[in-house]
Queue: 2 jobs
Job 1
Amino acid sequence: MKTLHVRNITDVDDKTIRDAQTSGKSLKEFTAGWTEKFHADCTALGCLPPHIEPSALAHIPQQIKMIEQLIEKGHAYASDDGSVYFSVSSFPDYGKLSHLDTRELKLGTTQNQRADADEYEKDSIADFVLWKTRKAEDGDNFWSSPWGDGRPGWHLECSAMIKEYLGNDFDLHGGGEDLVFPHHENEIAQSQCSCGGGFAAHWFHSTHLMVDGGKMSKSLGNLYTIEDLKDKGHTAMEVRYVLISGHYRKQLNFTLESLHAAKEALAKLAKGRETLSIAAGDSSNSKLNILNSTFAAAINSLHNDLNTPAALGHLFSGLKTAQKLEGNEAAANLAAFDTILDALGLKLPTEEKTSHIPAEIIDLADRRWQAKQDKDWATSDQLRDELTALGWTIKDNQDGYDLVAN
């Protein structure tokens, strides 16, 4: 299935203008620096880049055009100071996404209540701003419009860019749970009233990430960047593993201990894959429907509301079963394993401790492990002694064994 992934960059809003002014940099220079850091972290975490990544600053004309359409259709109005607001009372479906009770909103009186800030709470429902008239604190960050100099409202930016690249109807809209109201609610109102169409067919809202049992905060000392965690000896892939070990709709508590567990889990997956690869040998990669592989439960979990933690669990159990296979069957299941691993965006660590182990040593260790599983203690002890004589110590663990050179 072909997809079109659009991820926009919000480079003009209340926060970016405020922080750019504080830094002494131009808005473009300030946001470009943060965008570059964002891209670096996404690459490190193994996030696929979007097909299109528009910025709000580059789409001011499209935003002005959308405001004109809303005014023309009776869904927006200009105030005396040159700002433009969306009339919430003009859109009967307002509040459906965030389950607002429209009977309590008193929508007929909202025109006397206006929200100029980008973010506000549900109990502060009001006509929201589409175009903000120029103010001294905005500095040089303003553009000409039919209503005077000013800048677009945050909610409008996303609607205009969505219209430009995805049209009036598209499949999936993502974001954090904090964006349901007012941001996504306002996007729906603007887009449906200006362009028609159904806007997003599905919504994907992720919960907030907790860190060490609390909200991320510099003052609490629990705000970690990717670089911070790398300095502590962790990898970005370990961070990714922790993040997908929880379901996107359930709160996840991120800790340094969870990173240690992720490191062990990735090492086990790497070791399991190596064992399966050895079993496959030089066999051809015979075609196998992934749903007929030992990893079918893993892919089915991803099909079920993107249940990544369940998929990870089935990846481990599928490996245990697959490791009993040989030849073409092992090769086909190895391909299925790699497909799911790729879907999860995981790259396994290089097994330095096993990469240099001779094939005959691995064969002895595998035979010794199988003898132990068969409770053939005499053979198990004999093979262990042979390994020791050849300079290797075998250490059993819950999921198999480790080989250590003496």
Job 2
Amino acid sequence: YDYFQFTLQYQPAVCNSSRTPCKDPPDKLFTVHGLWPSNRNAPDPEYCKETTLNVTKIGHLKAQLDIIWPDVYDRTNNVGFWGRQWEKHGICGSPTIQDDVNYLETVINMYTIKKQNVFEILSKGKIEPEGKNRTRKEILKAIRSGTKGKRPKLKCQKHTGMTELVEVTLCSNRNLTKLINCPDLFKPSSQYFCPLIGIQY
């Protein structure tokens, strides 16, 4: 892999854009979707080897992970969600990611210590979740001001005629030491492309 994508999802938009209803009302927050080893010019690695999350080793992390990395569809299944992310993506992050516990700790570290919390970044840029229409430029400017100018990847989705901001991805180099410009953005032809104007958040 060449780099990592750290993808955060805006809970209300995720619930709106899903065929599966969310069991609990969503919080107006961006929480973690996953940390994914990725390639610029090849398919991203997935399911690199047989593994399962060792649930007995993660007790000390659970309270923090429940807050920053919930399964938005079913909060009783957070551990299952982290397990699926580890099996599909995390295991492929070796040697930067050492094991399952290190994968979870790395996510906590990125969200809290490295301040890659998109909700806070947008808020500092005076963009709050008010259900207002925003321009793509406004959103990008706010995020870049909190990421040393690096370009994020935005994902939007249409819901009852409105376009909602669903996910923001921040990209890091392959050893997770610094943010980089996200290389692989959604094309205008994609259903996930964010238009210039009229993005609801």
